[in-house]
Amino acid sequence: MLLVLCIDLDDDLGRKTGIDTPVIGRDAVVDAAVALASNDPEDSDVNVLFEGVHIYDDITDEPVEVAAVTGVDGSDVAANRAVGEEVDTVLASLAASEDVRALIVTDGAQDESVVPVIRSRVRIDGVRRVVVRQAQNLESMYYTIKQVLDDPETRGTILVPLGILLLIYPLTIAIEALGYPGSALGVISGLLGLYILARGLGAEKILDEAVERATSGLYAGRVTIITYVVAAALLAIGGVSGVQELERQTDPDALEVIASLVSGAIQWFAAAGITSSLGRVTDEYLDGSFRWRYLNAPFYVLSIAAVLHAVSAFFLGVRDLEYLAVMLTGGTLLGLVSTLAFAVAEARFDHPEQHNQGPGGPSSE
User: Fold this and answer.
1) Between 20 and 30 A from 192 (CA), which of 20, 43, 94, 244?
2) What's the rounded Cα separation, in Å, for the pair 209 and 206?
3) How much is the pTM?
4) Contact 321/310 with Cβ under 8 angstroms?
């Protein structure tokens, strides 16, 4: 048997006519369509009901039944649930011995969101969309745009670049009003470049996670909040120190510019990394989830800082080979030794059961 299901997701039929749903049978659906058309001739669900009757009349080679089911005027979840319950009622009224298939009739993309709910109850042979010819695809376009704007990821992808483009003209006017007309293109290009780079690296997710951790830490009274603030201040000082080191150079090339910035800022950046790492270690210890490997981070920071300082010093003209060798070797050994030491400590103190196993693994009794 083929069941022609006319879908009215927002329950225009019930709200405007007072007819109880589901409506089952050709005559009942015709009466419902006439009643809805009498109350609201512009309602597109009138076309859905008459199209269901039209399909019912056209099919003569197999048993067929037509029914109208409605949802509720509210959230999509509640509407889909209501449609599912009415579909169960319709199926219960049909002959249980026959294989029932459904042909869904809707008036646009919004009503078609209930298709998965119906598919979970009966096999679907097809979906027939009915719209007024003068408004072809209008409703579908509206709900497509609505769904795009409701999706946070898609909204950020489309609306943020559009907002930046709309800000270009007022930003240019503001920069020219400040007396820097030649800087407008550079500022706009820089903003677009930062946005594209942030999107490419997924910086928005990192920023959201950082804000969430900071908020939760603030309410929980975590030590990391204080250490992160101190680390941010150290990073700012490091940036200023790097710029000052760059200003001491005369006519530097590209490598010397990078080396100067690194040389002036690396010790402050290292201090910021160690501070934030120790704050996190402290919180892990207070929470009872401390692991020895967490202490590896400060030593990693020191190791990387030593190597970068030696490399930057070399490009700035330092040719003291003994100093460079000590810094490079010491930084590398510090990273390797700390990794091995804390790995052994974690295996010995955090997982002592591993040392009680014989060469054949854990014993079984």
Assistant:
1) 244
2) 5
3) 0.41
4) no
